[in-house]
């Protein structure tokens, strides 16, 4: 992650230039995969092509792009035509069904037809085998067929095999194309559903779960119809196979048929049970992703509170539940292999026991027939498992699509109507929206039971006139936000209705910042109007801020705006709402946490000025600046308790009394806050970096790490033991079962004795090999996931979290971990088995075939190896490109979900969909490239292999006919045995190549995950800090110096300290000198962006110290580890840390306190009297990120947590910025009661909120401009501070 994105346009990653469009209409091009040759640099396919792919790593612009018929929009339009008229499965089927004449209308029937054709061709293999035996197995010379008939047969066999080699990859590619189209349709439907779904009322559908649904469920559901075709054609395939057996074997077909039926029944039972376990696995995965999402979103707060270990262990616990279900799946897969293997042995024992006439020739045909059936049956458990997984995912998607959407607000656009919003006896509540069925989640415990009793609701009757300025005022949890959300349709309507007359724009209380430039954030998806933009910037107080940024409004913001102050985030959020043209503006406390001057400016220039002729509805906790309101509604417990104009509410005739304190702060700021120095603002440049993407071969370090995880040398040792076992058993079997001159009875006797002895070790070896890889796979997955989580929770906040998009991390922790969980170990064991099965006939070639055939074998291998090297080289890069192209899909979706209230209220749905369509189409196009390349290789390599087989057959038969020369020990039986085995070489070779290619793909998942685990900037939490203040002396000298300190009353001391976010960036705090004494209270004030909140980051070593020294408790900071340092502070941040769980867990995550003590403190602080905690007390359930709590409730919860921790130093960052005056007074009382004996640094925007402080520090541009005791300032008659206090006393006396 080293390359920084272009600040001008972060979407430059997705630019598509000079790319060729894939077209499925050109049947010949698709059938022969000629469009793939462009990637290989074959010049006759496209003009002006460079030698790419085989000569250099592929890049995005080298790949073809998705065509109009396959893109997200086209696929969704077909899907939408049928959706909602019927269930999801039928809708998808109707969307993509097709006729033979119109492939562009759909693919399901087309794919089904070709699958049946391919299956039919494969079932003809025993007939080909029986016919080929005539050229080797004859008793008398006159029975020998003619050479011309042999050549004729060889030609037919070649045509048959080539046809199979071409048609099967074509069929598989079109099945993949069907999957791509369905993914596009489902991606768009999930986005549209999310834009209409009230996520704030959902318990089961968080951002993490929705991304997991997009990443895993869509992929699995898109394969539903292909898996269904496979499963439902099994009976037809079985009937055809039995017909072939009867044709080739007659009555001897009965026993193999019965064995096949038993195998089928076992496979179906396994598939059904596996589906149940897989459903539980997906539920566990959802829970893990929710926990991961919370830990990443709250990364800064987690570090400030030293909760890294708690969140790490929490995620691990969810991961263990997920792995428990995964382990059950692994054991089931091992067990089914064992059962199927021994059922197969028992079947053949019955064949030998009950068949009368059986010999080598009959046995060869019977084995070939049974192999055809076994090929169907051995895959049946896996196919049924895949079908059940697809079915479960389809059910999960269907359940989400069936969820109740936001209330459809009644719209009225009559210009003659005088009202803007009318609430007619509206009763609305936060009743949960989830309707989960048993196909999606198993409700077994009370935690899953959704209790809708005593949910908070509102009951109001209001009419707001056009052009009015109206305010809803109330304390925390009074119902203000519920009214706003009800107007937007996000709450549950119980009775009444809401009519909205006009378009709406909304500014939410919690700022929504997207990754992109400041300009992009403000004009988000609206056309750019330079004059309007400039005006909005001015009235929202952003001119000075933007001018101070090095790149101006082209400055790239982080995903949550972490390179902005809280006030700047608020104003950008407000500017976006104002820039969006509307009739009605809903403003949810947009000026909280702002400087008084800026707040006054916004009220005067924006709300009362620019929006003067608009309907303005303000939701706030204070009556400040509401003198010009047309109507104020006072809210308590969801009801209007008082209403009127400002004078009626306040009970006075003048407005001056209520604005005097604001004027005091305004004057204070004007005198003491200086202009910010632009040279110190380059820290706010573009920080988002391009996602890491390796080039070329998988690095040796990754391979070595995976090798270590898989048991080091135990893995190849197991492979060798398995190969020796299988090879030895086959050689023994060939020796006894392919003897010349034995009778049928002797052959039958040999089969009864030696077949179980030969096959039992093979079955046991396969099962043990599978068990080893699957169990080691679980261990590997656990280690990698734990390493990633450890790395992420310990990652540097400024050097890592400020430079990435969380969607990228979620992508890796979902899809890449899924690949590592089960797919990688499965593919490793598959490759081992396939390579062994492949090497056996090749080994037999050298033992039993004519030496003349060996040069052909060598030429064949050289050609295939050359082709495979090119294939793997390109496959690696395409896989990397495809993996990276998924990140913009999830990043954009995640950001839309975070700003869902604004997006669905203010933006046309089409604009959001089009923006996402670009991301999705790029990813779908890359999938087409990936699938096309894989099936191109299968087609070409298969054709080459089949040509080799035909030539091998001709050579063997020719020498047998013309020269009559067979080397000693090379019998006719051995020759036909080898040729029969070589008939499977084509498929085995392809399967081995595909398996190895898949392993390469999964190694890229390892590569991406190991990058997170090993290569991101870390904080060494348990190692002593290294800062400039301790570099000139060793530890003993530091301790000696500390012991000589005279003033033991100083608890925190900073001397000339300077801090920066990261190396080579400008300093955000400069030359700070602070002495904090025990029990002392210091208030910090300054303009927005002055660096106030950076003080907390500096003291907790989140920022990098470049100069000066810090001492805490008479000890140099270098004597502390980061953990020890941060545990010295109790912290109340501006953005409280609230996570999913109950209230007790949130108050005491580390289980340090007894429950009665927690209960007592929570009761004394009034926490349990709040609406959300009245019923269940400490065991009240808190939703993901505290979405079911008000901001005031969140802040009070955080304060109680800080009180419980009982630290000697407390750092407070705007603790009362988002709460009402009554709650603010309550908080002040709590501070006086519980923090009277602790040292405290309080950060505030208003001087009046910290007047009781022992000293006041004024901060500007990261420097202290005034810092002294209030008494000293008041003793000076010329002190401006004294004049300010006099003004305050005067205003309070009025």
TrEMBL record:
InterPro entries: AAA+_ATPase (IPR003593), ABC1_TM_dom (IPR011527), ABC1_TM_sf (IPR036640), ABC_transporter-like_ATP-bd (IPR003439), ABC_transporter-like_CS (IPR017871), ABC_transporter_C-like (IPR050173), P-loop_NTPase (IPR027417). Keywords: ATP-binding, Glycoprotein, Membrane, Nucleotide-binding, Repeat, Transmembrane, Transmembrane helix, Transport. It is a multi-pass membrane protein. Residues 109-389, 763-1008 form the ABC transmembrane type-1 domain. GO terms for cellular component: plasma membrane. GO terms for molecular function: ABC-type transporter activity; ATP binding; ATP hydrolysis activity. The chain crosses the membrane at residues 107-129, 149-167, 224-247, 253-275, 330-354, 360-382, 713-733, 753-775, 855-872, 947-967. It is found in: Membrane. Residues 441-662, 1052-1286 form the ABC transporter domain. The keyword Transport applies. GO terms for biological process: transmembrane transport. Belongs to the ABC transporter superfamily. ABCC family. Conjugate transporter (TC 3.A.1.208) subfamily. This is ABC transporter family protein. It comes from Paramecium tetraurelia.
């Amino acid at each position: 992650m080293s390359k920084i994105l272009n600040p001008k346009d972060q979407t430059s990653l997705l630019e598509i230039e000079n790319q060729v469009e894939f077209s499925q209409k050109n049947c010949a091009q698709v059938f022969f995969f000629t469009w793939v040759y462009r990637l290989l640099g074959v010049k006759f396919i496209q003009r002006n092509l460079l030698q790419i792919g085989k000569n250099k790593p592929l890049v995005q612009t080298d790949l073809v792009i998705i065509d109009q018929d396959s893109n997200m929009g086209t696929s969704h339009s077909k899907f939408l035509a049928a959706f909602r008229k019927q269930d999801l499965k039928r809708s998808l089927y109707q969307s993509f069904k097709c006729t033979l004449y119109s492939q562009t209308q759909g693919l399901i029937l087309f794919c089904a037809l070709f699958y049946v054709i391919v299956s039919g061709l494969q079932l003809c293999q025993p007939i080909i085998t029986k016919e080929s035996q005539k050229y080797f197995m004859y008793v008398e010379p006159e029975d020998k067929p003619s050479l011309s008939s042999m050549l004729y047969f060889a030609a037919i066999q070649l045509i048959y095999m080539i046809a199979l080699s071409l048609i099967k990859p074509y069929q598989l590619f079109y099945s993949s194309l069907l999957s791509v189209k369905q993914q596009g349709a489902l991606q768009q439907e999930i986005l549209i559903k999310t834009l209409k779904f009230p996520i704030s009322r959902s318990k089961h559908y968080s951002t993490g779960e929705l991304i997991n649904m997009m990443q895993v469920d869509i992929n699995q559901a898109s394969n539903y119809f292909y898996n269904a075709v496979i499963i439902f054609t099994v009976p037809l395939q079985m009937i055809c196979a039995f017909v072939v057996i009867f044709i080739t074997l007659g009555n001897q077909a009965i026993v193999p048929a019965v064995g096949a039926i038993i195998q089928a029944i076992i496979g179906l039972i396994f598939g059904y049970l596996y589906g149940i376990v897989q459903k539980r696995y997906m539920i566990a995965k959802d829970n893990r992703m929710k926990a991961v999402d919370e830990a990443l979103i709250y990364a800064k707060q987690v570090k400030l509170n030293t909760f890294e270990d708690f969140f790490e262990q929490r995620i691990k616990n969810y991961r263990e539940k997920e792995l428990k279900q995964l382990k059950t799946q692994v054991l089931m897969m091992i067990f089914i292999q064992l059962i199927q293997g021994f059922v197969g042995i028992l079947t053949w024992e019955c064949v030998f026991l009950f068949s009368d006439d059986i010999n080598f020739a009959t046995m060869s045909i019977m084995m070939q027939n049974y192999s055809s059936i076994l090929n169907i049956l051995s895959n049946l458990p896996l196919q049924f498992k895949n079908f059940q997984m697809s079915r479960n995912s389809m059910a999960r998607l269907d359940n989400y699509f069936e969820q109740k959407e936001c209330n459809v607000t009644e719209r009225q656009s009559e210009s003659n109507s005088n009202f803007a919003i009318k609430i007619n006896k509206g009763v609305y509540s936060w009743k949960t929206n989830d309707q989960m069925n048993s196909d999606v989640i198993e409700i077994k415990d009370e935690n899953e039971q959704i209790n809708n009793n005593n949910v908070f609701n509102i009951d109001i009757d209001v009419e707001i006139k056009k052009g009015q300025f109206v305010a809803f005022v109330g304390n925390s949890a009074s119902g203000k936000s519920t009214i706003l959300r009800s107007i937007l349709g996000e709450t549950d309507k119980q009775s009444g209705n809401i009519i909205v007359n006009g378009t709406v724009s909304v500014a939410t209380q919690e700022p929504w910042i997207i990754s992109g430039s400041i300009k992009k954030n403000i004009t988000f998806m609206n056309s750019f109007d330079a004059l309007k933009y400039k005006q909005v910037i001015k009235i929202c107080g952003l001119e000075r801020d933007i001018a101070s940024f090095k790149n101006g409004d082209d400055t790239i913001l982080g995903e949550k705006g972490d390179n902005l102050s809280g006030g700047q985030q608020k104003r950008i959020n407000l500017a976006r709402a104002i820039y969006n043209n509307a009739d009605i503006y809903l403003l949810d406390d947009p000026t909280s946490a702002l400087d008084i001057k800026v707040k006054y400016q916004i009220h005067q220039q924006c709300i009362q000025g620019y929006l003067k002729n608009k309907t303005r509805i303000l939701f706030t906790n204070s009556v400040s600046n509401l003198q010009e309101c047309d109507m104020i509604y006072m809210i308590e417990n969801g009801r209007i308790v008082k209403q009127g104009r400002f004078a009626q509410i306040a009970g006075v005739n003048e407005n001056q009394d209520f604005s005097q304190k604001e004027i005091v702060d305004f004057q204070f700021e004007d005198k003491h806050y200086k202009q910010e120095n632009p040279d110190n603002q380059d820290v706010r440049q573009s920080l988002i970096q391009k996602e890491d993407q390796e080039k070329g071969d998988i690095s040796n370090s990754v391979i070595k790490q995976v090798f270590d995880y898989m048991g080091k040398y135990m893995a190849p040792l197991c492979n060798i033991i398995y190969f020796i076992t299988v090879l030895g058993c086959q050689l023994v079997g060939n020796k006894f079962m392919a003897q010349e001159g034995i009778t049928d009875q002797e052959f039958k006797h040999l089969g009864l004795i030696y077949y179980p002895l030969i096959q039992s070790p093979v079955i046991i070896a396969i099962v043990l090999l599978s068990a080893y890889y699957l169990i080691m796979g679980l261990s590997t997955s656990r280690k990698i996931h734990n390493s990633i989580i450890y790395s992420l929770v310990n990652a540097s906040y400024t050097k890592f979290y400020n430079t990435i998009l969380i969607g990228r991390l979620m992508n890796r922790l979902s899809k890449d971990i899924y690949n590592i969980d089960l797919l990688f170990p499965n593919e490793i064991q598959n490759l081992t088995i396939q390579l062994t099965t492949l090497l056996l006939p090749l080994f037999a070639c050298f033992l039993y075939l004519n030496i003349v055939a060996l040069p052909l074998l060598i030429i064949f291998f050289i050609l295939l190896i050359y082709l495979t090297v090119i294939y793997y080289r390109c496959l690696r890069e395409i896989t990397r490109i495809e993996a990276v192209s998924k990140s913009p899909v999830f990043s954009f979706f995640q950001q839309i979900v975070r700003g869902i209230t604004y997006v669905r209220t203010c933006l046309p749905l089409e604009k959001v969909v089009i923006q996402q369509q670009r991301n999705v189409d790029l990813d779908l196009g890359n999938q087409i490239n990936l699938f096309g390349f894989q099936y191109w290789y299968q087609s070409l390599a298969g054709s080459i292999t089949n040509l080799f087989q035909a030539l091998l057959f001709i050579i063997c038969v020719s020498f047998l006919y013309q020269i009559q020369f067979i080397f000693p020990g090379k019998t006719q039986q051995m020759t036909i045995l080898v040729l029969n085995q070589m008939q499977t070489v084509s498929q085995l070779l392809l399967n081995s190549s595909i398996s190895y290619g898949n392993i390469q793909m999964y190694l890229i998942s390892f590569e991406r995950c190991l990058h997170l685990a090993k290569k991101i900037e870390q904080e060494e939490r348990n190692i002593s800090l290294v800062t400039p203040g301790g570099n000139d002396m060793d530890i003993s000298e530091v301790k000696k110096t500390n012991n000589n300190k005279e003033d033991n009353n100083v608890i925190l001391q900073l001397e000339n300290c300077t801090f920066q976010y990261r190396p080579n960036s400008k300093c955000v705090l400069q030359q700070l000198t602070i002495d904090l004494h025990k029990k002392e209270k210091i208030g910090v004030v300054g303009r927005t962006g002055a660096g106030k909140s950076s003080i907390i980051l500096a003291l907790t070593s989140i920022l990098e110290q470049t100069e000066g020294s810090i001492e805490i408790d008479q000890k140099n900071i270098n004597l502390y580890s980061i953990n020890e340092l941060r545990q010295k502070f109790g912290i109340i941040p501006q953005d409280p840390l609230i996570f999913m769980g109950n209230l007790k867990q949130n108050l005491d995550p580390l289980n340090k306190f007894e429950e009665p003590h927690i209960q007592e403190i929570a009761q004394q602080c009034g926490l349990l009297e709040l609406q959300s905690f009245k019923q269940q007390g400490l065991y009240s359930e808190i939703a993901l990120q505290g979405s079911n709590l008000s901001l005031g409730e969140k802040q009070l919860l955080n304060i109680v947590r800080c009180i419980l921790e009982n630290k000697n130093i407390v750092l407070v960052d705007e603790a009362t910025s988002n709460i009402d005056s009554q709650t603010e007074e309550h908080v002040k009382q709590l501070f006086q009661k519980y923090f009277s004996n602790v040292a405290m640094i309080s950060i505030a925007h208003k001087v009046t909120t910290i007047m009781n402080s022992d000293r006041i520090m004024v901060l500007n541009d990261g420097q202290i401009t005034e810092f002294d005791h209030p008494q000293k300032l008041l003793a000076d008659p010329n002190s401006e501070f004294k004049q300010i206090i006099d003004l305050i006393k005067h205003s309070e006396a009025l």
